[in-house]
Give the backbone structure.
Amino acid sequence: MLSPLLPSLLLPCLFCLSLCVLPPSSAQPVTSPAPRIPLPRSPAPAFSATAVLDDEFTTVSLASYTERGEWLVLFFYPFDYTFVCPTELRAFSDAAEEFKKIGVSVAAVSTDSHHTHLSWTRTRREEGGVGRLNIPLLADTGKKISYDYGVLITDPADDMFGAAIRGLFVIDPSGTVRSVLVNDDGAGRSVDDTMRTVQALQYGDSHEGEGCPANWKPGDRTIATNADGAKDFFESWA
């Protein structure tokens, strides 16, 4: 005769056996897909982060620009207290007023903390600092913004693992990505070409049927975006 205690003794064993036989789906490591860069004509990923501006902490979001009807140049850089990065930040900061004249704001992002950003802006340029800037420095410590914009280095074997590569995104007032530039670490970006790109996009938006050819600058001749109209430009260009 079976003991009435037998079922209670067997249950723990059956439970242990199920752990060995059944696939441990809940124990599988969770991996995120590789980051993808949002291409022109796609919505810019929304973001909100603590930033340093005017020697204070503030909150900066994509909505804070689009709600004001502004264009945004959003650029990512790898690290505070490095080498190429301070030259880019100073260059874009110095041009901030010129960008504002054409309805464009500029913001910079790295995966450093807002405390590190503040310290960096309080460090003299001669000592590797950036000094006080005219643009906000966003702290992406959770790395979500860098990931959403496809510029986060996710390879643990890479010496920049966990940092953002040099990505630059031009976002229009509707929150749409209009231009993307991504450089490897050693190549700083051109403020002049960024300005020219924004101006060309703005011109095209306000002049339907016209496009801006290579190396175009405001005041230069544009090209009609139809086969017959373009011939006038091509005759003088050829």
Observations:
- Helices lie at 6-21, 62-66, 84-94, 96-101, 114-121, 144-148, 191-206, 227-237.
- The two ends are 103 Å apart (CA to CA).
- The chain is about 35% helix and 20% strand.
- Confidence is low (pLDDT under 50) at residues 1-31.
